[in-house]
Design brief:
Oligomer: single chain
Mean pLDDT: 90
CATH class of the largest domain: Alpha Beta
Helix content: 40-55%
Shape: globular
Order of helices and strands: HHEHEHEEHEHEHEHEEHHEH
CATH topology of the largest domain: D-Maltodextrin-Binding Protein, domain 2
Number of domains: 2
Number of strands: 10
Structural class: alpha/beta
Distance between the termini: 74 Å
Largest sheet: 10 strands, mixed
CATH architecture of the largest domain: 3-Layer(aba) Sandwich
Radius of gyration: 24 Å
Length: 325
Amino acid sequence: MSALGQGLGAVLAAASVLAVPPAVLAQPYPSKPIRVIVNSAPAGLTDVIARLVTPRMSQSMGQPMVVENRVGAGGLTGAEFVAKAEPDGYTIGVVASAITVAPQLVATAPFDASKDFAPVALLMSTPLILVTGMNSPYRSVAQLVADAKARPGQISIASGGHATMTHLMAEQFQVQAGLKLIHVPYKGGGPALNDVLAGHVPVYFDTLNTSVKLVQENKLRALAIVTPKRSPALPAVPTLAEAGYPEVQGMAWFAIVAPAQTRREVIAKLNDEANEALKVPEIRERLLNLGGTVEGGPPSVLADLIRSEIPRWGSLIRERGITMQ
């Protein structure tokens, strides 16, 4: 073939490609495995939720969803990895509410939760519950507050660590009740709860999922739950609002996020699949057994939650001088 013929052939080939509609050229999403970054340790609640929901999503989409734990800096390491990933839908994150808190505890935040993530789906939330040991003298919030005011700076309150949700709730409670308690941080919620059970520390704001069975079995006493209405799991436990402190609010929540600028159709696909997974009876039952409320809904639900959480906790962090230690 002459050089001219070869040139014409190349032009015609290119023209034929251009004539194909973009929808035909583009591969449907997803066309390869999806990395699911969990910014906390294996077997933690965020990890458990990720491994409950993603297999059903994977099965429906026909591609593996590979869960990968990236731990460090109070969850910042894994969340930053997602925020800076290619926004193609093949790296997403299952994260907890700490993504709205942790960036406000460091001098230079590695990401802005309201700008650097594309919200995908809110999966589950779990309230916090104020608990005390069975040998504790406290049988109500009123008794605790009265004793704490009579003995300022002498009563301890546990947390799962500096700047965790359990710590923030303890600080918020002190502000609203006008108390001065001794904060005792532990390396995780498990050790904190164990010391409350043993009577070494009198009170602790635990997540409902880890305390509910202990309360039901009369191994732990619940003073109040941080919810607008009483929990069906513990209907005899009053809300903190009933105890006189409606301003104390907050919950732990878990969600799927993607890097900002991820295409809308990809977000919509992931959101649809997440919502379908949450409808599966076995998955719903497992999440409810974890003491959670199954959430779901459009991405805007998660977006609104993130926008409201950042100023709420930022104000408390600055007022109380909370740092990541």
